[in-house]
Amino acid sequence: MNVMKNLIIPFAFIMFFLSAGAQKFNGGIHAGLAGSQVAGDTYAGFDKAGISAAGFVNLEVKPGWYLQMEIGYLQKGSRHTPNNEKEQYDDYKLNLDYIEIPLLVKYKLNEKLMFESGLSASYLVNYKESLNGLELDRNSLNDLCASFIAGIY
Fold it and tell me: Is the Cβ–Cβ distance between 67 and 102 less than 8 Å?
């Protein structure tokens, strides 16, 4: 019975969006900068910018409603540079490189405003951490990461 419930809900969701008549896929690429904050690194703030680049495919399933799938590269991490005035002497760097696959639902309100929301699965492909120039051993980071995405643009 539990298996049936797990199949019916996603099936109903997909059928709701696929009930559109004509289906035309669109695609493209996007790139930019991403800010990230790492919980547990003892340094607060978004102190390291990273690259974000992806290719995407989307489908308008109802007027103004889109389903979108992406595959991309995302840099995350943390950085703290010494500040003698604040008596902070550590030079810390954490670089994390991910391959990310987001699945999004998007709603276009008008030509100037769009909302998006969805889930993302990421896989850690590269890890480098150093403190005062000395490379540190990898700590207990998971290779897989799940994220919630929401945006307005």
Answer: no
Judge whether 124 and 98 are in contact, CB under 8 Å: yes
Exposure string (b/e) for 26-44, b if CB count within 10 Å is 16 or more?
A: eeeeeeeeeebebeeeebe
* DSSP 8-class letter at 17: H
Q: Residue 129 — φ and ψ, nearest 5°?
A: -135, 135
> Per-residue pLDDT for 23 more than 70?
no
> What backbone torsions phi and psi does residue 61 show, to the nearest 5 degrees?
-100, -25
**Amino acid (one-letter) located at 49:** A
Task: Write out pLDDT tens, residues 28-87.
Answer: 999 998 877 666 555 666 677 889 999 999 999 999 999 999 999 999 887 777 677 877
- Asked if pLDDT for residue 97 goes beyond 80, the answer is yes
Pair type for strands 113-131 and 144-152 = antiparallel
